[in-house]
Specification:
By secondary structure, this protein is an alpha+beta fold. The protein has helices at residues 43-59, 63-69, 79-90, 136-141; strands at residues 14-16, 19-24, 27-32, 92-95, 98-101, 118-124, 127-133, 146-152, 159-167, 172-175, 188-194, 205-207.
């Protein structure tokens, strides 16, 4: 909003459309509003922007999945933003500009259900064989939890996930992916568990 004096050039200041009115040394002047402003960021701001870009790129293939796996954790915000906050705070490593994602710390699922004590993945007949062990108490109280498996080709970024019907007490699951796997091309794998009524999740576990 512009403030004018007795006439348009008398002690005016402010903006009128694309024109800026200003005073200098007791005189009034008019000039065009600049078409753009120089936005010089500090190194800290550039580093934060680079972190955001790294996290956004990592999360992109899992966007639909996260709507389900973070639903219980997203109080007052979208599941995607809850996941982004977790990964930003815990899984970005390195120094600007060479940031990377710590896949073990990047939780693709989050919730109160217990995680398995140990998980392993091996190649069997061109499929992935997942095996895990449970704490005795978890096996008793959460026997009907079902397995979620997630895989990502580290070279191509191709991603698959599956909410299986495999129970926690089964302790193993053979997964035939849509993409080819081999000894030279074993994808990154995460597992998590979901309650039988689908209301709760466990944190995800990255399988080395």
């Amino acid at each position: 909003m512009a403030k004018l004096g007795d006439n348009i050039m008398g002690a005016g200041k402010g903006k009128v459309g694309e024109v800026v009115l200003y005073n200098m040394h007791g005189k009034s002047f008019m000039r065009s509003k600049p078409s753009k402003y120089t936005d010089k960021k500090s190194e800290a701001q550039l580093a934060q922007r680079a972190k955001m870009q790294k996290v956004t790129g990592f999360m992109s293939p899992f966007k639909e999945l996260i709507r389900k796996t973070y639903a219980g954790e997203a109080v007052g915000r979208a599941p995607y933003h809850a996941a982004k906050s977790q990964i930003m705070q815990n899984a970005v490593q390195g120094n600007y500009p060479e940031f990377s994602i710590n896949k073990e710390a990047a939780l693709l699922s989050k919730g109160p259900l217990p995680v398995p004590q140990q998980v392993s993945v091996s190649l069997q007949d061109a499929a992935l064989l997942l095996e895990w062990t449970n704490a005795k108490e978890d096996e008793k109280l959460h026997s009907r939890d079902t397995l979620l498996v997630i895989a990502q080709n580290a070279q191509t970024g191709e991603t698959e996930y599956l909410f299986t019907g495999a129970r926690r007490i089964a302790k193993s699951f053979k997964w035939e992916l849509n993409t080819t796997v081999s000894q030279d091309n074993v994808p990154d794998v995460w597992v998590a568990f979901r309650s039988n009524d689908e209301s709760e999740m466990s944190d995800s576990v990255y399988v080395k």
